[in-house]
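B., you asked whether I could sanity-check this one before it goes into the benchmark set. Here's the sequence:
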Amino acid sequence: DNRRRGRPALDKRVLSLIDALDGALGEALVPAPISKVNADLVRVLTHKSHQQFAALHYACGAAAPDGTVPAQVAGYDAAARRLPIINALLDCPECDPDLPGASGVSAMHVVAACLPGDVAVAAMTRLLKAGAPPDVLVAVGGPEGGDGGGVGSGLIRRHVTALHLAIECSEPSDRKSVV
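And here's what the prediction gave me:
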């Protein structure tokens, strides 16, 4: 490698580390199973992770495999940076805004639960324009017929739409823009 020629040992090690990190970043952005398989755009957009979420769900803020929700962890600016990604995905005719994720959760539900106020409103508006149905019900809360979080937790299983979640998850000051 010409970059290493004539450089001190420490510089060569740093370059090796940079190469390794670049490879890891590439793997994180395009997982090997997708990049090693001849896949058309439809297959890439509809491929679901082991958590049963597709690309649109993750762009909308679905929890990462380690359980963190990037939009909530990183704050408003990171959430706002998701809008161009959501728009780009929805601009693809092959992207299905109604593709169900884990337990039937739609991209609208993910947006409602994970993105803040006006970012959620913008994302939900774009999803609606792309054909996402507003009336999909998903079950949230505890197990069927009971309390889901232990005695006195109040987590009762119920079915909600994305709008229900948006109102429940929003700050009181954001509720007017959500509705």
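One thing to flag: The beta strands are 138-140, 158-160. Otherwise nothing jumped out at me.
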